[in-house]
Amino acid sequence: MKKSVVNVLRNSALIGILLGGQSSAESTDLWRLLGDGKSVLVLSGGDAVYQIKGSNKTITVGVNVLDFVDNGYNTLSLSVFKFNGKLDKTELLLFSQGIAKLATKCFNSDVSRLPSIQNWIATNSVKEAGASQTSEMDLAQANFGPLKLTLSKRAGAMNGQAVVIRMERQGTPGESPWVNYCSLSG
User: Fold this and answer.
1) Which residue among 25, 45, 91, 144 is least packed, with the fewest CB closer than 10 Å?
2) In angstroms, what is the C-alpha Rg of the chain?
3) How far is CA 96 from CA 6, 59, 122, in A?
4) Domain coordinates in residue numbering, the chain
5) What are phi and psi of 147, to 5 degrees?
6) Strands 26-29, 180-183: parallel, antiparallel or unpaired by DSSP?
7) Do 87 and 54 meet the contact criterion of CB atoms below 8 Å apart?
8) CA proximity to 53, closest of 65, 41, 37, 66
């Protein structure tokens, strides 16, 4: 009898630990998450520009906040751009690392999916649209669990380039199973 009570208590404690870690919603302030959390330039209309710094490269990223649902976002669009030349592998890797951080903190993606997300961004060969192209652009799309990513590339003036990632998820931020989400502080 004593052993069965101990086993029930031990199993109950284990179940409580396992369930407790996943049941509470956690909101992260999007502005503090972007770049170093200090140098976000918010533009009129609510969009923003920030920098991601690597060991020997810095990239500039624009973020477009698209759909606000119940104090969280279910769609974000991020653009990395280079005014003079094409983005190289190091710059795309920095961008993909920023996307991976947003995937876990804002879209509740499992960390096991992050290498696949980063590889998909860094190696995608979607056809680049011209700077003046007004017809439909080529898009690459992939699902990483409940997170859907859409990638496009555009040539810019002076041989520049922009890569755009649209991040989407269905559901309501903060409600199970989407417990990690982003909101805005103001």
Assistant:
1) 45
2) 20
3) 48, 11, 7
4) 26-183
5) -90, 125
6) parallel
7) no
8) 37
Give yes or no for a contact between 141 and 149, defined as CB atoms under 8 angstroms apart. Answer: yes
pLDDT per position as a tens digit, 74-124:
888 899 988 888 889 899 999 999 999 999 999 999 999 999 999 999 888
User: Comparing C-alpha atoms, which of 174, 186, 170, 164 is closest to residue 64?
Assistant: 164
Residue with tokens 């669990």: 145
Quick one: tokens of 184? 């805005």
Task: Report the phi/psi class of residue 15: left, alpha or beta, with left for phi > 0 and alpha for psi in -120 to 50.
Answer: alpha
Flag whether pLDDT at 16 surpasses 50.
no
Query: H/E element holding 31?
Result: helix 30-33
At 131, list the tokens. 């700077």
Query: Whose structure tokens read 């409940």?
Result: 146
Per DSSP, which regions of 56-99 are E strands? Answer: 58-69, 72-82
Q: Kindly state the average pLDDT of the residues 147-173.
A: 86
Q: What is the mean pLDDT of residues 161-168?
A: 90
Calculate the alpha carbon distances from 127 to 116, 149, 163 in Å.
21, 16, 11
